[in-house]
Each structure stands twice: as C-alpha cells, then as structure tokens.
Design brief:
The chain is built from 8 helices and 6 strands; from the N terminus they run βαβαβαβαβαβααα. It is of the alpha/beta class and 184 residues long. The longest helix has 19 residues.
C-alpha cells in the first residue's frame, strides 16, 4: 500500500503547490502518492496546477480532490495520511496544521507559518521557503520509516494537547488575570 502525503488547504498561489509539484517530480518518492484537497480561490492557478501535473508526468502519483468539509470525511482523509505538507509562502496561523497535528500526522511546512516549534520538538519538518529546501525536506520525510513518521506525529500531537487544550488555555487566562488583579 502506498503512503499518502496530504495537502488539505485552500488552493492558492501563496500555498506553494507548484513548488511542491516541482519537488515531487524531482524526488519521485517511491511508494508515495500526493493528495491535494481544497476549495479553489483562483481558477487560473488551479489550471496551472493541472497543467504542471501533466507536464511533469505526475498523473499517477498526484491526485486532486474536491474540498471536504464534513467532519467524518475530513477525519478519514487525515487518518489515512502519512504526512501533511504545507509549503506556504505566507500563513497567519495554519488551522490545517492544527488539524494534522490533532490526528498525529507529521507536518512539513515553512518558517512562513508560526509553527517553528515543531522543529524543536521534532514534531515536523520546518524549512525556509525555497525550492531546494523543499526538495531536500520532502526527500527526507518521504524516506522515513512508518515508525519514524508515527513517532514524529505523536510528538506533534502531544505538543498540541499540552499547549492548545481549551482547559489549559482557560486556566492560563485565569492565572494571567489573577496576576493582573494582584498588581492593582
């Protein structure tokens, strides 16, 4: 069974999909497929993506799907993925990264997202956006064993649970307000 790399975001130029396709064609990851899901915000860019897939002869390893919004279907997509890829050129938070982490899916993204901590905890691969960096990190993550991918995903999920749990956030706010009130 082939491993699955997942791109699950809005289809837009700033998300780095064309660069990802270039890397995919250079790396030619053995026994991997790339699945692209997302609503299209720029149809001319989507046409460029489809054209690039054909130009690079990737039609047997890269597949485009309609966006998925229903929880059960979305969960199935993430749970069937072996890694999540977002080679973004600019991202404010990256909710899709949170979704991937919540399912224990290791993440490959850029320093242009606010997720540099994943590199420190080894919960993902974080790179400075460039074609060369994307090539090397994609090769690295698609060369990892199942066990390595699972362990990386587990570290990312644990980080998310410790730092983004709603109960912890509420307790942190309570402590913050106590400190503020005590200073008055």
């Amino acid at each position: 069974q082939k491993k699955e790399a997942l791109f699950f975001l809005r289809i837009h130029e700033k998300k780095g999909i064309l660069e990802l396709l270039n890397s995919w064609s250079i790396i030619k990851p053995t026994n991997w497929i790339l699945k692209i899901y997302g609503p299209v915000s720029d149809m001319s860019y989507m046409n460029e993506i489809k054209k690039k897939i054909l130009q690079l002869s990737l039609e047997n390893s890269v597949f485009i799907f309609d966006p998925v919004f229903e929880y059960d279907q979305k969960e199935e997509v993430f749970l069937n993925s072996d890694c999540f890829i977002l080679p973004s050129k600019s991202e404010n938070f990256g909710m899709s990264i949170v979704e991937a982490l919540s399912y224990g899916v290791p993440v490959l993204t850029t320093e242009e997202t606010p997720w540099k901590i994943l590199k420190e905890i080894d919960g993902g691969k974080i790179i400075k956006f460039s074609q060369d960096n994307l090539n090397s990190s994609l090769k690295e993550i698609t060369s990892m064993s199942n066990e390595e991918l699972i362990a990386m995903g587990d570290r990312g999920r644990e980080f998310l649970k410790k730092n983004y749990d709603i109960n912890k956030i509420i307790l942190d706010y309570i402590e913050f307000y106590k400190e503020v009130l005590n200073k008055w």
